[in-house]
Every structure is written in structure tokens, then in C-alpha cells.
Model the fold of this input.
Amino acid sequence: MKKLIYLFIGATLVFSSCSSIKVTSQFDPQADFTQYETFSYLGWSENSDQLINDFDKKRIEEAFKAEFEARNITYVEEGGDIDVSIFLVTDTKTATTAYTNYYGGYGAYGYGRPWGWGGGYATTTYQQYDYVVGTLVCDVFDGESKQLIWQSVGTGTVDENPSTRDKSIPKAVNKIMSLYPIEATK
Done:
């Protein structure tokens, strides 16, 4: 049952805010990215599309489409100059927070005579909670040679609020695409 809950949470892949997304990217320095005018989707790798619902899958695909089109690369059903593959992984992490209350007191010892601040005491409360980290990978392959020419990986805390996905998914994808070798012109 716990596994199903985590898969459901994974289905809401959306990073809680753009600033919390860590993005890394690599590219083939021999590839001439200016020659690519069209792209097509290879699909979702390793059944990772099963971690998200169809609405979020479409949001992610549309966000990538908008980012490529902003770089003057047009979507085609098949046979694009580049092929794009999307991969999703989720991982549950545990965090611990601590809060300390300090209570001072009056007493015979301490500052001031004969009475002043005394020893007091402190109480520390610990709390553990689970959260889900999502990793969204975009792989771009040369359509002719089928060689990987660019990869970008975005990792962040998953936002479980479905009402924010229309805005947060494009922001997350924009951050992932920000390291693409061709800058957006639109």
C-alpha cells in the first residue's frame, strides 16, 4: 500500500518551485545544434510514464514542445532532425527537523544580587517527515546518427498540489531547458 501511495505522489511530478530545482546538463561539443530544425518524441523511457497521470504527462510534453519551438525547432510526428526522450524517477527521502525552546528563570544564582536570571532549561523537539524528490531527464539524440547529443537533468521536491501544475510544470521544464545550447528566441 505504501508503494502505491508513493507511486501516486510520483504521479504528481511537479517541482514545488523553480528556485529549488537543481539542473545539470551535458552536450556533445561536436554537434552543430544550429542545423536542427525539427524534433519528434521517442516517448517516455523505461516505463517512467507510468509514474504520472495522463494530464501531467501531456503538460510535460507540451512544455518541452513550447521550449523547443521557442528555439525555432518545430515538432513533427516522426523523423525529426532530433529525437527527444523523457525519463522520470522518484525517490522518497526522510528529513529531520529540530526545534529548541529555551526558558530562562529567576533564581538565587546567576546575574544580579540577590536575585537575577537563573539557570533555566531547554527542550528540543525532533520531527521526521518523508518527502518525494523527482528527477526529470530530457535526452536529445541526433535523428540521423541516433547518438546522444544533449542531456539535461532537473531534480527537485515534488509538489503534491494538483492546482499548481499548470504553472509549475512549464517553469520546471523551462529551467531544465535553460541549459540547451541554443537560447530561446521567443
